[in-house]
Amino acid sequence: MSKIKTAFFCSNCGYESTKWLGKCPSCNQWNTFIEEVLDKGNNKADSNDWKNYTPNPRKSKTIALSHVSSIEEERLVTADAELNRVLGSGIVPGSIVLVAGEPGIGKSTLFLQSALQMPQVVTLYISGEESEQQIKMRADRLGIQNENFYLLTEASTQVIFQEIKKLKPQLVVVDSVQTLHSNFIESSPGSISQIRECAAEFQRFAKETNTPVFLIGHITKDGNIAGPKILEHMVDTVLQFEGDRNYTYRILRTLKNRFGSTAELGIYEMISSGMRPVSNPSEILITHKEDQLSGGAIAATMEGLRPLLIEVQALVTPSVYGTPQRTVSGFDLRRLQLLLAVLEKRGGFQFGLKDVFLNIAGGLKVEDPSTDLAVICALLSSYEDVPVSQHICFAGEVGLNGEIRAVNRVEQRIAEAEKLGFEKIVVSRYNKKGWDSAKGFNIEVVPLGKVEEVYQMLF
Ligand SMILES: [Zn+2]
């Protein structure tokens, strides 16, 4: 009888321990440790796995930095400009990219589509979730033909690597990393030790053969599926695919990138024939209404390095119940409460007796603090039931004393607003340097210092 080997893993960060621990020493979470079987002590070594496959074993030796060639490796440029952008102008050979996102928002569609759009590249698409027929149907819907696209519905990494050896693909997509299973580990697919081992096997494969690998991984809102988080340090690039499944817009965000900036972002619209890259997002995110309604204001935000104009919608109604409700979608609830407190204190508005609903149009989530000013304007507009002109947009952070604070890259925001035909943009007075240099623009830049001044200007 061989001994069964087990270990305890933190389900939050993947920290490994020989004993059960109440609190994770790595991420400080409580009650996250679970036991997993690592090895039953049999079935080893004979399996034909990537561990035994080394086509060109790397000869490690020290080398003077000056002798290292600095020629940048040629990247694989995809047909999708948004994907190229988030990867840092294309796929780096031998890189391993983790794509994380909630189930059902379109990760598979996006990467199936991107792979199909590269007929010059031999691609292997490994699916542990969908059958060949399901993927075929999906590809038919996308309407793209590709003779170099190969499909493998398999979960065992040993079988997968045998197929890879035969096919020698130039690009591998794994959908999803949670379905993979390695014979070296006894625990079930989707467990922490399995995910780590399988990802490590693909990492070795990517580095040794210089083949790029995309690993698709599911996350849930409550984060109770073990997964992508524990792989973040193992991979070269982490992309997060975000969006509300009730809306058509999706954002592909770079969280980590060894080969490029992490401030990048790609925007897609989900249409019946797949994911359509949106090269000019502001035009779509703002709804041009015929008649003006109260409660809406346009914010000139930045998402990464891209200026993005978005619509903030507020609804302020008398509170029926004892405790007023605050409901947000796409905006931070605590931030809204803070802004309401500022309006109550500085402007004497009785928000304590009102229910407040705040929504960022298009299902986007914004983190840029420059949205504050547009939120304040939308709230006041609904409170007073007076519409804000659709030709004005706002870019300013609001401080606790009601002061409008400067924001970064104000010139870019002004330029974007002008491009979209806005007549006025309200910015912070403290952004003087920025709007001084923007004097050549046709748009009127209105520098204001306090929330009260905005109120006087609008109402
Ligand atoms: Zn932990």
Tell me what you see in this structure.
Residues 72-219 form the RecA family profile domain. This is DNA repair protein RadA. The protein is globular and about 75 Å long. The longest helix is centred in the middle third of the chain and has 18 residues, at 192-209. Helices cover 26% and strands 25% of the residues. It is built from twelve helices and 21 strands. It has 459 residues and is an alpha/beta fold. The chain folds into three domains: 1-44, no CATH class; 76-279, Rossmann fold (3-Layer(aba) Sandwich), CATH 3.40.50; 284-458, Ribosomal Protein S5, domain 2 (2-Layer Sandwich). The strands form four sheets. The chain has a nine-stranded mixed sheet with strand order 6-5-7-8-4-9-10-11-12, sandwiched between helices. A seven-stranded mixed sheet has the order 15-16-14-13-17-20-21. The chain has helices spanning 81-87, 107-116, 132-142, 157-167, 192-209, 228-231, 281-285, 333-347, 372-384, 410-419, 432-437, 451-458; strands at 5-10, 16-17, 33-39, 96-101, 123-127, 149-152, 171-175, 213-218, 237-242, 249-257, 265-271, 274-277, 296-303, 306-318, 326-329, 354-360, 392-395, 397-398, 404-405, 424-428, 444-448. Helix 8 crosses helix 9 and helix 9 (372-384) crosses helix 12 (451-458).
